[in-house]
Amino acid sequence: MIELVRRLNPFVRTWTVVVTLLMPISIRGDNQDRTRSVQAVRVNTAPVIDGELSDAVWQQARIATGFFRIKEGKIHPSRLKTEVRILYDEEALYIGIYCEEPDMGNLRETMTRRDSRVWHNDCIEVMLDTYRDRRNCYVFASNTLGAQMDERISNESVFDMSWDARWESKVRKHHDGWTAEFAIPFRVLRFDPHNRTWGVNFWRTHPMNGQSYSWARTAVFGRVSEFGDLTGLKLGKIHMERAIGILPYGSLRAIDDRPDDLNGGLDFIVPISTHLVSNVTFNPDFSQLESDPTQINITNDRELSLPERRPFFREGAELFELPLNLLYTRRVQEIDFGTKVAGKLRRVNFAVINTYGKMIDRYDGDRKKQANLLAGRVNCDIGERTVIGFMGVQKHQAERDVALLSLNGRFGFHRDWTGTSQFAVNSIEGQTHWAYHNALAWVREGWLAQIGIDEIQDGFRPNETGLEDDAFRRTRVRTRYRYGFPEASLVQSIGVGMHHFYQTNAQQLLRERRSEVRFEIEIGRFDFATFGGLGVLREVGQLFDTRFVGFDANYEAQHWHLNSFGRFGLRRAEISRYTNVSAGLNLLGKLSADVDVGYLYWRAHRNTLIVRLRSNYQFSRKVGWRVFVERVDERLRGETLHNFNAVFDYEFTPESHFFFVFADGRPGRRAVFVKFAYLFEYSFPGFGQAN
């Protein structure tokens, strides 16, 4: 590691000069007038969370109203009324929402599971910038079926849905609209108790007419720097005692032709203060409870990133999301012992993870090998919208050590201009190699322009801890313009865009060149896009011309949707086509089902048919039954793969579950998996109240 730092010094000096030159612009940002504010009123009696706003205590609340219609970067007054009220007591923050809806049959209601994409339905999202740092926030959302979603936004650019919290919500429907109540306990948030003002925004989606509404004067979801102010918070005397969490689990795995596997483990969750939380784990269960669906990559053969569902990695996970992905936690397969600390101190966000166990070695046939992995990440807020970050990773296993350092910055030059930069260097067996990323984006009233340059030096091995990739140099340019029509228009928007991509390999030979144009139109519930392009692609050591055209059509109804996607062209002078048709249905707000049929045909190279069914029956908010069925036909090889999973899930809390899983795959083994995990929390007077 010392040798790595010594080799990095020349770059550090150069990077410091660049940052110094850019700092005056970055700190200044765009000092726009953030006049929108709403006061939170402290009450002695909490409202009953039943979805009704009839409790007398709500009459004490100030009202946030006057929402704006957001369409392609332009801000106009909304035709539909939305009102938000905010109260708090010593335990929680209470949000009461009224959403006007003249046609209640026009609601879109398809999502029933927790943490599903509720923003595709009629929903309300509450965003809290608890440190008022204008970069990071919590998001709490519910659709009209009452399905909850929570996530964290980091640096206005990373959306982490793996984060979970325990909070209450209820929704009621009326003849002229719908109401919702949220109760968000202070103990699930990190914040500064001395700060009386938080950043806040409320975002409402109305998908049947393709509209979104924002209370803050912002045209971009997640642009925390443009949030309004939540004032009147006197948090010095609220109940802030944190509870120590003990999360034991027990599991039984029965697989054909194998002895039954009985396992158990323990997690400790220690909230050190309102700013910090730590985790210690012993032999956690890292089973993925659902199989990852087969994915067809029709453009290249890069490794696909799969989502992380395991609880240990969730806290602080958003900090490790970088343009160059250098920490892919699904490499870690089995942990004997692990620790983690994450939090915020003044203007610094940080997370540190240390694990000892088995990791996949991509350079030795994907074998599992014992390794110690230490990863640390620091983000420092500078000025209004700029963030400077550092990341270090050390992986130690018997035959080699890997050290990696990364510096990155996200520069808010102006309200419309954002730049990102990253430089990484790794050391493997005494050899040092580097990689970098630079990008600039401009967004303004329907216009979008982006340019990016990336390079991975030959010998740089992100595989060791991140995603697989070969050495390359890559340039990307993208422009787009979209015009939004008035709210009552049948045609909602039209757009046109262009994308150019140029990439060379380690020998600086052309690897891929692609130019593409795209046209989009939204008409009522129907969205349609058509695109076409041409380029050159290097395959099997030779360059081949590629030409393609395609379409993407989508229709949204109240309880169902239909989508069709097609891409057709020539590749290696042979016909290639990929088509996919998907349909989804929701019945009675309980049963949802989606069917996908995808077909890839490429003469003598690939002929694959995938048929997939997903269904979920939500008995209640806490109890659900999921079924996943997949059939993959590789017709050229005469192979047929089957994948079947059924999952019964009883969620006591977001952290406490009972799972029963049945899995069957061909080729493969039939398996049954049972797991029970329950979070016990213990409060001690004065614990966790450090400021």
Q: What keyword list fits this structure?
A:
single chain, 691 residues, mainly beta, Immunoglobulin-like, Porin, 41 strands, disordered N terminus
Task: Describe what you observe in this structure.
Among the domains are: 32-231, Immunoglobulin-like (Sandwich), CATH 2.60.40; 290-302 and 469-651, Porin (Beta Barrel), CATH 2.40.160.10. It is mainly beta and 691 residues long. The strands form three sheets. The protein has a 24-stranded antiparallel β-barrel. Strands 1, 4, 5, 8, 9, 10, 11, 14, 15 and 16 form a ten-stranded mixed β-sheet that branches. Strands 2, 3, 6, 7, 12 and 13 form a six-stranded mixed β-sheet that branches. The chain is globular and about 75 Å long. It contains one helix and 41 strands. Helices cover 4% and strands 56% of the residues.
- CATH architecture heading of the domain at 32-231: Sandwich
Query: Taking all residues together, what is the mean pLDDT?
Result: 86
Query: Tell me, what's the shape?
Result: globular
Number of strands: 41
Low-confidence stretches: 1-32
Terminal CA distance? 34 Å
Radius of gyration: 26 Å
How much helicity do the residues have? under 10%
- CATH structural class of the domain at 32-231: Mainly Beta
Count up the helices.
1
User: Strand-residue fraction?
Assistant: over 45%
CATH topology of the domain at 32-231: Immunoglobulin-like
Largest sheet: 24 strands, antiparallel, barrel
Indicate the structural class.
Answer: mainly beta
